[in-house]
Design a protein that fits this description.
mainly alpha; about 70 residues; flat
Length: about 70
C-alpha cells in the first residue's frame, strides 16, 4: 500500500494514479475484512461488501474517464 501511495503522489498520468488509488483502496478493504474475521463480527463483512461494490463502480468510472468515454 505504501508503494501505491507513492504512485498516487508521483504518478506521471491520471491512469497511473487511478490504478494506484484502486490498489490502496482494495488493500484497505482487505485490512477491514481481516479485522472482521479476527473479531468475528458480521457488521464488518457488510461494510466490506458495500465498499467493494463502491470500489468496483469507481474503477469502472475511472476507466471510462481515462478512455475518453469510449467503450
Amino acid at each position: 500500500m505504501v508503494l501505491g501511495v507513492v504512485r498516487i503522489l508521483l504518478g506521471p498520468s491520471g491512469a497511473d494514479r487511478g490504478a494506484a488509488t484502486d490498489l490502496v483502496f482494495f488493500g484497505f478493504v482487505i485490512l477491514i475484512a481481516l479485522l472482521g474475521v479476527r473479531l468475528s463480527t458480521t457488521l464488518l463483512v457488510d461494510i466490506v461488501l458495500v465498499a467493494t461494490l463502491v470500489g468496483l463502480l469507481a474503477a469502472i468510472s475511472l476507466a471510462r474517464l481515462t478512455a475518453g468515454g469510449k467503450r
